[in-house]
Design a protein that fits this description.
This protein is α+β, with helices and mostly antiparallel strands. The protein is built from 16 helices and 9 strands.
Length: 409
């Protein structure tokens, strides 16, 4: 999985190599050929890879794997064969920022009809990882004609058997009509090759602690452990007044996991040598540290998008194209840039308050040309003010990171 190469469009017939079989009958030969051909067919190939940049930094590397290579976006979307979108995180994200990144691009690349039927599934997919994406994390969105849409996080399958159309909703954010940039889309379609992106696919690997964390999300909950009192020669623990707090602590373990360390330590002092108590205390300290780490990367981040629901998602899908269309109408291709054959994509971060007034417009990714950068910034200011935010959108303001592509026909 870690060695990637760009195959040619005329895919070689791998089943043709080494086809010398020795058996007792034609049926065995045919069976082996069919198995070998099926394995070759199931192998996904790297169609293209690209680096997503924002705020002057590399954020993640994206890779598109397909069974049948193609340079046509519509053809890839229509393929009823396994496909995989792979994301390898370069720079840390918050859960809210990660959600916004996907929802904004989904909103401008999918019509309301196609999105509304799968809005809840898209939200589920964004919520599935209990941790915000961190450097080294690998997130995979997979399509299989028999199993629908699935999601893996650092090797752990978090979601499976979602409707097949959910995958294409996600895929259109990369190769749809308004991708992050034309270069990003061209590279994923194999029209150009970014060697840096290919190298990052191999270099970026998840940390073992992050792999274990993802696996723990799907692990069954541990059974509560009830500690039984240990009787001494003269009396039972229940008859000993000073043991009552210890028993109460043991009984509360199932209700309060954070008390496990204290209860275990007290229980061990009833039955064993000081060495056992010391070891138990050390284990408890380690468990407390692990619980704290899990809380920092899991539950705390989950709260950031816990209130995001279908009605808000649909409202955002309806509102975002209004803002985009208003800005695009205000774009003017600079004559001097056209005369010099200057082309490129400018990504600009737009923040709007609830009344529709423009709060800020910041270029988050420049093109190579100053004239194009200025034209994109001027278009946003000219387009303001915008429509008021719908009531279903609960945020104090609306943010969109919009790509504006200048291309001469």
């Amino acid at each position: 999985m870690n060695n990637y190469s760009h195959a040619q469009w005329n895919q070689p017939n791998r089943a043709a190599n080494g086809r010398q079989y020795f058996g007792n009958g034609t049926s065995l030969l045919l069976a082996l050929i069919l198995i070998f051909s099926a394995a070759a067919k199931a192998e996904l190939q790297l169609n293209g890879s690209a680096i997503y940049e924002d705020l002057g930094k590399q954020q993640f590397v994206a890779a598109l794997f397909v069974e049948d290579l193609s340079s046509n976006a519509n053809s890839i979307q229509l393929q009823q064969s396994p496909k995989r979108m792979e994301v390898r995180i370069i720079n840390d994200y918050s859960k809210r920022r990660w959600l916004n990144l996907w929802m904004q691009s989904i909103s401008i690349n999918n019509d309301r009809e196609s999105f509304s039927g799968s809005a809840q599934e898209v939200i589920d997919i964004m919520r599935a990882p209990r941790s915000a994406p961190k450097r080294g994390d690998v997130i995979e969105y997979l399509f299989d004609p028999d199993q629908g849409t699935s999601v893996r996080f650092n090797g752990t399958e978090l979601i499976t058997n979602y409707p097949p159309e959910v995958f294409n909703i996600l895929l259109r954010t990369w190769i749809g009509p308004i991708p992050p940039s034309t270069a990003f889309k061209d590279q994923l379609l194999g029209n150009s090759i970014d060697m840096d992106a290919d190298e990052l696919l191999t270099d970026i690997q998840p940390q073992s602690s992050r792999v274990a964390l993802a696996a723990s999300w799907m692990a069954p909950a541990p059974e509560p452990i009830a500690l039984e009192p240990v009787a001494d020669e003269a009396t039972t623990a229940a008859d000993t007044p000073e043991a009552e707090p210890q028993l109460a602590a043991a009984e509360s373990i199932a209700a309060d996991p954070e008390s496990t360390a204290a209860a275990t330590d007290q229980a061990e002092t009833l039955e064993g040598p000081e060495q056992i108590a010391a070891e138990t205390e050390q284990i408890a300290d380690n468990e407390d540290t692990n619980l704290a780490a899990t809380a920092d990367t899991g539950e705390e981040q989950e709260e950031e998008i816990a209130d995001f629901n279908v009605s808000e998602a649909l409202a955002q899908r309806d509102y975002t194209p209004l803002v985009v269309a208003q800005i695009y109408k205000a774009i003017r291709y600079p004559n001097r840039a056209a005369d010099k054959n200057q082309q490129g994509t400018v990504r600009i971060g737009v923040t709007i308050d609830r009344s529709g007034d423009l709060i800020s417009a910041v270029i988050t990714q420049e093109s190579r040309y100053r004239l194009l950068n200025q034209a994109a910034h001027k278009a946003v200011k000219k387009a303001a003010p915008f429509p008021q935010l719908p009531e279903e959108m609960k945020a104090d303001n609306f943010e969109v990171n919009l790509p504006i592509t200048f291309r001469l026909q």
